[in-house]
Task: structure prediction
Amino acid sequence: MEQVLKMNYYAHTKGNNIADWQLLIDHLTNTANLAQSFGVDAGISDFSYFAGLLHDIGKYSFAFQNRLKGSKHPVDHSTAGAQELHKKFQNSSIYPIALIISYCIAGHHAGLPDYGSPIDLDGTGTLQSRLKTRIEDYSAYSEELDLSTVIIPKKFPIGSAKKHQLFSVAFFTRMIYSTLVDADYQDTEEFIQGRKTRGESEKIDVLCQRFNQFLTKFSKPENKINQIRTQVLHNCLQKANVNPGFFTLTVPTGGGKTYASLAFALNHAYQHGLKRIVYVIPFTSIIEQNASVFRDCLGKENILEQHADFDFESIFVNDIISSDDETNNALEKLKLSAENWDISITVTTNVQFFESLFSCHSSKCRKIHNLAKSVMIFDEAQMLPREFLFPCMNSLWELVNNYHSSVVFCTATQPSLQRFMPDGTKFIEIIEDPQKLFANYQRVQIEYIGKQTDDELIYRLNEQNQSLCIVNTRKHAKGLFNGLTGEGRYHLSTLMCPIHRKLVLNEVRQRLKEGVSCRVISTQVMEAGIDIDFPIGFRAIAGMDSIIQAAGRINREQKHTSGILYVFETDSKFVKRVPAYIEQGAAIARSILREFKNNPISTDAINAFFEKLYSLQEGDQAFDVNGIMACFEKKEGFFFKTASERFHIIDNRTEPVFIPYDHVAEELIEELKVAPFPRTILRKLQLYTVNIYPQELEELYKKGAINLINDRYSVLSIENFIDFYDEKTGLIIPDIQMGNAIFL
Result:
């Protein structure tokens, strides 16, 4: 009898020799096993395994196999798994389980879809349209896969808040999706590279022991301020044994919360078997500072610094990964991969963190499962996005209550966030007596001086030997800076790339230490978390949280009996308008400054400010302005894509521009031109990036100031560097009429 040769089915190519290609059954099995292991901490292993096993069965079609061999005919391969689940289980009691896995499989390339409606036409991209669209025959999968042997879970292993049960199921879907796409990426990456490429950072137990040893240097504080910081540290170490949940760490600015919060996080994680620590910080300047501190203590290989000065994920979000088709070489897929936060300690931004939680795109979502069994520290918690507090807080509730994590809200100006959580949510304060701590730490007087013209303000600043002035817009900061005279004048804003800001801050710190002339004009980038100490400061009127944070840069080390912060009203030709949310906070701050005239830097004043601020808003909609929660409250299905499109913390999206600031940046830019795997280079280029509005970028293009690399990356031309990048104030934007919306 003639022997029938078994046909081989392939998942990915590598070169022209078919013997080097990856077998499809190997990819499915590897992905399933990886996804299963990634789901352990979240308690979703069986769901993840099933999703991994089915995600690419559409590649069993002859059309797809021909595509790998050079055919130009596009093939939809990711719909097959979703359709197979629908056919097998649509009349079964476990169909709800099958449906959530269908979202994950259908979206593992194009992104999590909207459910849609039964009348959706083919090509609309919704799950409903995908389930009925005609695709290539993939039935050959049964030659290599026997689904009858796979155990399918019959119920959801999660709890839910009474009002948001469907939100919990939607978040559960995201968890499965995260394990699937990360496993898919990693197996593909390992196949292409021929080895496992993900680095292994040291584990929490090792880092905890190392950090606790480092802390012994603070065991004998010599002055009052260091005694207070040591007490804060002791409070954090004592509370580390409390069961995982929600915590607040309310510490005055300069109270040593960077070391103290890390001490809590490491010891809490070690004692409760948690795997990772994620620091979430509003400003890149604080990220740079904190990440540097952590590296010095724990080693640079153990710290991932990922921030939004250059969010390289956003460059790829509408690229090949958003197509349902598969390129005929897995190399293209890897060009689109982004961070998955699988390192022990990650330092990132509010924008990165929350937009990842609500994104529909695989490159952003692949990190979500690594938030299970983690400690999340939200530094400067008052800066959490007010317009999205309901979806943000509910997502944190999910991570704590269903995925065994802890959350710490850390700040000197603690907002009342419990009101945005499901009923019954409890917060545990780590500090024994925050009000007493604030009273013991009193070192700055706040004086309201009313309206100040630019000339009056510049005169006051020029009179001082050392002073700091923080204003609300970039344009105002630059205008005031140009009015300063004499030696030792500095400017700081996000128009300067991070490495430039870092060099300026180092120079400022040195001049302050030497007692020589040093006057700084800054935007809010200088306000929170920056370890710097001026005797006198000025702050344009804003919310009390901003005012108190600015006060934290004054007399920080108590070198003077008392520092002073002058709060002023702006009367400037450089300010045409102030963003509405700043003006709203300023209006309440005026009343707080009157009501708490003798002690505006107190927990009572802070509580009163946030109560008034939140009470100004009308109804829940003010804290979910784009209706994110509504995307997950319809029984028929979820609308992941719509939520992703609506959830943008920064309303006006910005574009990254690489700055050839020094020879290191120039070399990285040259490498980027030919790099097949740009992730590492892009990460390094974060230090040389300025984010600007699309309109501003367009004007720079018109002036010939920008070069485009690989049709993707905007780079300030070296030939035009002197004309468009000032050594004092950073990137020079052509004068266009677009207001002052970027204020950092």
Remarks:
- The radius of gyration is 27 Å.
